[in-house]
Every structure is written in structure tokens, then in C-alpha cells.
Amino acid sequence: MKIVIMADNRKNELLVNFCIAYRQLLSKHTLISLHNTATLLESAADLSVVGLSTDYSGGFDQLASRAEYNEIDSVIYLRDTQLTNYNEINPLLKACDYNSIPYATNLASAEILILAIDRGDLDWRDLVRENNAF
């Protein structure tokens, strides 16, 4: 599965701890993130993470495009509830909603999502990707 994994700045430490705790499960999948987060997770959690554009909004645009074409299977995005502006992330979450791509925005839902992926509850995403292939 292709899993997008990222966090707002104040949630980066929480994301690192999550990735360390679930490293065995996460390492079985293709992980995608923004460049800085990918570098952080590779060094701190010893995971292989594909890093996208260092331009913040450009990276979100790339992720939203991938979601629109069902090229990702789930999103873990630990959000900082103290931030008031989520315009950059909205296209990604809208594309996930439109294409029934599950996403988690807090630690509890992230744990549920990663455990569901490990159990095989989201294996149907493979069929969606195959049917959308050109």
C-alpha cells in the first residue's frame, strides 16, 4: 500500500514516535511524505520514505493529484488543532473523500488505520488501483 504520512510542525515529534512504535508495520509499505518530513522519519525512525517537493504547497498539490487518480491508499496527517488555516491541505482531504481513501488526522485514528491496514482490511484498495490503471 502507498501511505502518505505527515504532520504539522508541532506534531512532528508525535509522528516520529508513532512511526517508531509502528515501524514494523509501516516498513512493509511505500511511505510518501513532504521532503523535510521524509528526511526526519528516515533518520529518526529508520524508515524508507519517498520525499516530495520541498515547496510546502507544491507538495500538497502533488499529493492531492495522486489522491485524485487513486495513486495513494491512505493518509496519516497529524494535524495541529491550534492552527486556523488549513487551505493547503483541503484539496488532499477532498480528493480522499471523493475517492474513498481513508485518512487519519489524529493519533487515535492513525493507530486504528495502520492496524486495519496490517489486518488486510484495506486490501480492496488494490482492486481500485488496478481498475483505474491505464
Question: What spatial order of strands do you see in the largest sheet?
Answer: 3-2-1-4-5
CATH topology term: Rossmann fold
The gross shape turns out to be globular
The residue fraction in helices comes out at 40-55%
Q: Assess the beta-strand content as a share of residues.
A: 15-25%
Cα radius of gyration in angstroms: 14 Å
The assigned structural class equals alpha/beta
Task: Provide a count of the helices.
Answer: 7
Task: Give the name of the CATH architecture.
Answer: 3-Layer(aba) Sandwich
Q: How many β-strands, per DSSP?
A: 5
Cα distance, first to last residue?
19 Å
CATH superfamily: Methylglyoxal synthase-like domain
Give the domain tally: 1
How would you sum up the major sheet? 5 strands, parallel
SSE run = EHHEHEHEHEHH
CATH class division: Alpha Beta
Show unreliable segments.
none
Q: What's the average pLDDT? A: 89
Describe the protein in words:
The mean pLDDT is about 90. The chain is of the alpha/beta class. The chain has one domain (about 1-130): Methylglyoxal synthase-like domain (Rossmann fold), CATH 3.40.50.1380. Strand 4, helix 5 and strand 5 form a beta-alpha-beta unit. Helix 4 (about 55-70) runs parallel beside helix 5 (about 90-100). It has a five-stranded parallel β-sheet with strand order 3-2-1-4-5, sandwiched between helices. It has helices at about 10-20, 25, 35-45, 55-70, 90-100, 105-120, 125-130; strands at about 1-5, 30-35, 50, 75-80, 105. About 35% of the residues are buried.
